[in-house]
Structures are given as structure tokens and as C-alpha cells.
Design goal:
The protein has nine helices and ten strands. The protein is an alpha/beta fold.
Length: 294
């Protein structure tokens, strides 16, 4: 048990060195400009000047002074970042030298250190088809390292996925506006679609939602390797497939494209900026692209 603990701590340190460097050199400034403060706070009242927005007029002060005055607001720079992290069984898949779990862990670490550079709080919601763990937002390096440690060693109670659960939980637990990253392959139960759309609609009106979809190239198409047994990691269902059949491979690819289009369409509909990261790709480039488009 002690050896396993040491292995986890070594991996935490390795991830910290890699992702903190990326955060310091690349993302800190981009993050600062891409994600604004949670709102506007009242600063002062001053006399109205030509060009000021009449909607900001303070009518009580105007009535007392008999001169038009307006309220001045300033942006609250301090953010709260929430990471909604998929810990379902499908994250353990990977046909390259990296699992989806590894990519999710590194991206979460980069985002958390970027937030820390901005002196923001970071919190986490681990989810499957239920809320597996909630880590309340806090500041500081030790807090981020604890999150990374949990990402590496956490064992969920369930293997399935239900995206509506963490989005709904976010709305209930965070009353103030926050920047929220959903890190998932977004492959959830189709029966959850209506509940997810309702949850996104409510959460999107209160929070800044960003989707980071992590996938593997083997999920998009089957190789021609003869008859193989495939197993759904989340349901446990097994099926024999003849991958030598062109029709079978085409049907599989078409099904994947339809699923991807459904996911993209849902996120676009609720105006959720999204980055798509593959296990054989460069997540740094995708995150940079995401930050630039905001």
C-alpha cells in the first residue's frame, strides 16, 4: 500500500512540474484575458458626463443634489474556477500511449495552476452517473496538488455517465458566477439528453461554461483486424464484431459521427465554447485556440 502511495506522489510531482511550467509560460496571461471576473461591483457615484449610459443614473442622489449622477462599477477580477471532471469507466480507454484519464488529469492541472496564477479559487466536482466527490473552491498550491492527487488515485463508485448530474449540482452548490470547465468524453446515457439540456440552460444563465471533450482516435473508426469482441466499459455489455466487413466499419464510423454531431450541436445551442482534444494530439494547441477565440 505504501509503495502505491509513493507512486501516486511521484506522479503528482511529475504532473506538477510539467503542467505548472506550461501554465507559467503559456496560459497564465491568456487565461487572465480569456475569462473575465464574476461580475461588476459598485465603486462610486459621480456626476453625469456626456456619453455616460443613462441606465446607470442614480435617481436618489440625482433627486437630492438636483444634478444627474451615475453609479460607477468596476469588474471583480477574482474568479472561482470549477472543474467538472468525468471519472466514469470510459476515461480509462486509450489506443495510444496515453489514456483519456491522463489527458484529463493534465488539462485539469494546467487550468488549475493558471487559475492559481490569477489568485483565483479552484474547486472540483468528480462525476459518473452521480456526484462522486465535491472539493470546495480554495486557493493555494497545496490545494491544487491535493486535486491532482485525487485525479490520479480516485476510484469511482459507478462506471456509468450522466452529465446532467454535475451540471445540476454546480447550479445548486455555486450561487455566485464562476468559470466552469467540463472535462469529459461527453459519451453519456442518451436517455439523459432532456435532463442535460435543462441543466445546461439553467447553469449557462448563471455561469461561464466551457466544454473540453477528450476522445481517442480508435473511437471514431474500427481497424480491419477480423472478428473481435468489443466491451462497453460503462455498461459491461459485450458484442462480437466482424471488423473485416467494410459495411460494419462504415456503420460504426457513421454512428460515431452522428454522436459527435449531437454533442457539438447541444454545446453550440447553449453557446458553450468547446475544445476537442485527442489522446494522440496536442492539448496545448487546442487550449490555446480555445483561449484565443474567447
Amino acid at each position: 500500500m505504501q509503495e502505491t502511495e509513493n507512486d501516486i506522489l511521484k506522479r503528482v510531482r511529475k504532473i506538477e512540474i510539467k503542467t505548472r511550467g506550461l501554465s507559467n509560460e503559456i496560459f497564465a496571461g491568456k487565461y487572465h484575458t480569456a475569462f473575465r471576473g464574476r461580475g461588476m461591483s459598485f465603486s462610486e457615484v459621480r456626476e453625469y458626463r456626456a456619453g455616460d449610459d443613462v441606465r446607470d443614473i442614480d435617481w436618489n442622489v440625482t433627486a437630492r443634489s438636483r444634478k444627474p449622477h451615475i453609479k460607477v462599477y468596476e469588474e471583480e477580477r477574482e474568479l472561482t474556477m470549477m472543474l467538472l471532471i468525468d471519472v466514469s469507466a470510459s476515461r480509462m480507454f486509450g489506443s495510444t500511449d496515453r489514456l483519456k484519464k491522463n489527458i484529463i488529469t493534465e488539462i485539469a492541472a494546467v487550468l488549475a495552476f493558471s487559475a492559481s496564477q490569477n489568485n483565483d479559487k479552484v474547486g472540483c466536482i468528480f462525476f459518473s452517473d452521480r456526484i462522486e466527490k465535491f472539493i470546495p473552491p480554495k486557493k493555494g498550491r497545496s490545494h491544487i496538488l491535493m486535486i491532482i492527487r485525487e485525479l490520479i488515485g480516485f476510484r469511482p463508485a459507478s462506471s456509468a455517465t450522466k452529465l446532467s448530474e454535475p451540471v445540476r449540482f454546480l447550479t445548486n452548490v455555486n450561487k455566485k458566477r464562476c468559470t466552469t470547465f467540463i472535462l469529459s468524453d461527453f459519451m453519456d446515457d442518451a436517455s439523459d439528453r432532456t435532463a442535460l439540456e435543462d441543466a445546461l440552460k439553467i447553469a449557462g444563465s448563471k455561469h461561464d461554461l466551457v466544454g473540453i471533450r477528450v476522445c481517442d482516435p480508435r473511437e471514431a473508426e474500427l481497424p480491419n483486424v477480423g472478428i473481435v469482441e468489443l466491451r462497453d466499459a460503462e455498461s459491461g455489455r459485450k458484442v462480437w464484431v466482424d471488423t473485416s466487413s467494410r459495411a460494419v466499419r462504415d456503420h460504426y464510423a457513421a454512428s460515431w459521427r452522428a454522436l459527435s454531431e449531437r454533442i457539438d450541436s447541444t454545446l453550440r445551442h447553449y453557446r458553450i465554447d468547446t475544445a476537442c482534444v485527442s489522446t494522440d494530439g496536442d492539448y496545448v494547441a487546442e487550449l490555446m485556440k480555445l483561449f484565443k477565440q474567447r
